[in-house]
Amino acid sequence: MNSTAIPASPPSPRRGARAWDWLKAQPRWLLALCAALLLLVGWQAWMAPPWRVGAPPGPAGVDFLAADGTLLAHRGDRPVAEVDAAALPAHVRQAFLAIEDRRFYDHGGVDFRGLARATFDNLRAGGVVAGGSTITQQYVKNAFFTQDRTLTRKAQEMLLADWVETWAAKDTILSRYLENCYFGEGQTGLVAAANHYFSKTPQELSLGEAAMLAGMVKAPSRLAPTVDYEASTERMRVVLDAMVEAEFITQQEADAVADPELEIGEEEKSAEQAGWFVDWLAADLPEDFTGEVQTTLVPEIQARAERAVRRARLGGSQVALLAIRPDGRVVAMVGGKEWTPEAFNRATMAERQPGSTFKLFDYFAAIREGMDPGDTITDAPVRIGNWQPRNGYRGYRGEMTLREAFAISSNTAAIRVADRAGLANVREAARDLGVTAELPEDASIALGSASITLKEMAAAYAAFASGRYPVKVHGVEGRRRRPGRALDPQREWAPMLDLLWHAANNGTGRAAALGTPTFGKTGTSQEGRDALFIGFAGDLVTAVWVGRDDNAPVPGNSGGGLPARIWRDFMRGVDLGEIALPIDPASLRRAPPPAAPISPEEEDVPMVDPIDGEGIVIQAGLEGLVPLELDLLPPPDGALADPVDPEFAPGELPDDAPGPGDAGAVPDVPLPEDVPQ
After folding, report:
1. How much is the pTM?
2. Within its chain, how far is the Cα of 569 from the centroid?
3. Architecture per CATH, 352-470+488-629
4. In angstroms, what CA-CA distances link 436 with 270, 351, 453, 635?
5. What's the pLDDT tens digit per position in 510-521?
6. Which CATH fold topology does 85-255 show?
7. How many CA atoms lie within 13 A of 590 on its CB side?
8. Number of H helices, E strands in the chain
9. Which of 140, 331, 434, 634 is positioned for an S-S bond with 298, CB 3.0–4.6 A?
10. Where are the domains of the chain?
């Protein structure tokens, strides 16, 4: 049987190739139109995502919450109250529709008839007398664009208006529009405006009040009734006439409307506590951040800090106070005598000389190198090149323990301690404890000639309350990080607590001592330009600074004076928790105090004088002592403040010094005792 082979049919083209061939066969104008439509839809979806169209107002600005969850402050835009247009009285809705877009429910996103009429009216008048934007376009402008007025922006609003009406109902668009309208006097949204001008809710507005508010939208800064009541009532009549023309009300109803009486409502007072602290945190937030920030601040402790500052007799001086937990959590912050928005924060931003509070690093370096609080050091003249440090008190006291030298804040002893430890080790100690400021290479570093923020100094002292370092000062919960290094309890921690206890209880910081174990150190820069007390008791580390912003001298200002009294006044009103320390404070009381305690007026002044060959004051027992020459780098010329004035007896000031009532002077008056509140 013969068979005939059937020829195979050619393979069919692939589906993709067929589609490509079909596209190539279409007119180019059609392809271009389709591409333009795709681009338009893509642009619309990018500018106004469907899930955002008609969405109620979200959170605005930032709420800063205290450690207990209460509101400290709100920064940024205020949240806008929601409006439900469908639930508003008819005359309230109609007032806005009549003057802004009376055919709102009858047209799409763009009212071409209204646009043509507005164009004709403007051409006939020779200027802009009518607008053609619909409520939907105005909502689009407020919700998705800036307030630019250009032909390009107007075209974009028109393109987006129909897209918005595809995804949102008319009542929803009207609601969002009424939420975003600005009514002057800082009032955004119908709810805020009704309360501000009439002490009412939108549902309670009369016909005249609704017409007055609707008329303000055109020019709120000019038509607000609190600015020009006559112009506002005239505009209200224009709205009422429009309502009559739209047949929303009768002429008789419009004529019967009396001029509304204003009743300015009480604004909702936003909490505004701890302004210095909130500003400090806000500066580190992203610009577009909204929502809540859970902070570490304790309102009761903050109030106590502000009270202690208010009670201080500061004269023309400024003040800063920073209180932190041993792990670095900020619980109170005062950056000056009075907070104003964007005020300079002296607790976190001011780089000032810490004076003898810097000796913490000298002695810590020495302790690391094997010295002990009971070891001896000499308080006697020291020469460093062409410079000679001197003490804040008169004369020199010879051989003494490190404990006594730290307590009375001997400058010549501190130079010797830093020399024994090594200046490089002093700088290393400061860096290890968290100091990031630039540190001098010369010997003046030992006496606090660097410029360091109070925040960094407080963190350094906190290491000896917690036993770990470096401590990171922070104000937001959840950012606490355990310091990576621990102090040796017996070789490092206990000896430093020994020194700090004697300085605060037997030395220059006696005015700060509390009934509970107190540890701390005073510091004073030349001529009282900076005065500090930094210390801790219980679970609270507090640093206080007093000085002038212009760095001018402040006669009578010393760390053992006003800063120590502010510190004590603040701390004694705080409920202090207990912390575990590697030393029994009772044992510290058994150590002998300095043989001859010095007064606050003679407290540490950590600068140096040029050697001029004249009268170094020396105690009788050290008469004729030749200054010890140390092979250290002296401070460069001009690196330090002007030479200090001669010492004066307690209470005695030079003839040209400011008096107690003059700017800059710090009166040596105790803070008032607590009184029942």
Report:
1. 0.73
2. 25
3. 3-Layer(aba) Sandwich (3.40)
4. 37, 11, 10, 20
5. 999 999 999 999
6. Penicillin binding protein transpeptidase fold (1.10.3810)
7. 5
8. 22, 18
9. 331
10. 85-255, 352-470+488-629
